[in-house]
Task: structure prediction
Amino acid sequence: MRSHIALVSLAAALALGSNGCIMKILTDGQITATRQASTSFDTIGDVELARSAAEASFGQFEGMHALAPYNQDALYLLTKTWTGYGAGFIVDEIELAQDANNDGMEEYQRKRARMAFDRAVFYGLQLLGQSAEGFDQAKKNAGSLAKWLGDHFTNKDDAPYLLWTGVAWLSRADVMKGDENEGPIFIADVYVGVAMIERAVALDPAAEHYTGLIALASYHARNGMAEPEQAKQMLDQAMKMTGGRDLLVPLAYATTYACVKGDAALYQDMLNRVLSAQDPDPYQRLENALAKRRAKRWLAKRRAKDSCGVDVSPPAATASVVGPVGK
Result:
């Protein structure tokens, strides 16, 4: 009798273990398929529709992570999506509030952006932590961090993970730079995001449509006393490699390098390139649609003057109306 009970108990335990393995396989398979399918999101040219879709996806991605906290694909989706949502949609809202002189709304949107980037960094560090421990000790200075990154991240597949974590880190510092209390803290740690992106570019400069080059160029052109000529070299490289397919490159060229140099002709030329482009790459349709929205805004006389100190001519300021892009 005791032997029979033991056999039944063993069979039950094995069944539970088997069910657990099956559940893990199914969950991991679903997450992998979701990551593979997520690229279709970039083909949406309707910004408002894309915003709604992104907001709806957070519940799914967060739920996947809760079911499989170890899964790299789930962590990647969360890191990239929170970064993209903050940099693409919430920064758009910040600029709208600025143009409307609505300080209260601008502050509200900055807090939202901070939350999005905080969450992206949180998941990004978890993702990096699966490949290497010791981040907190490594980031005590730029030299030790660069060594840690070089020692532990040597595969081309690491580039997107480093890239999105670094972009979130830099973007958070940018939206918080005007905060009297926390701004100086984030600015002091900017080197962390820069080092991550530099390592990503070293591993694969083409990762995520050369986003690393664009991010580093924006950093180097953060003001006229920084490294604007280094930014120009990176932007020229990105322009050449993307062949006009990625409208974020000329947008960044205008709003960073041309802006800090006070080059009105280059500023207008780059923004008009964005607005005159039709549908240069169906696989980057969403970011190109967002670039068009921002380019039209930055060509407005007041923003051009207040933000960059350049005067734009009336024809450029009334360039094409921006609507949904593509089919």
Remarks:
- The chain has three domains: 1-36, 71-204, 226-327.
- DSSP finds 16 helices and no strands in the chain.
- Residues 2-37 form the longest helix (36 residues).
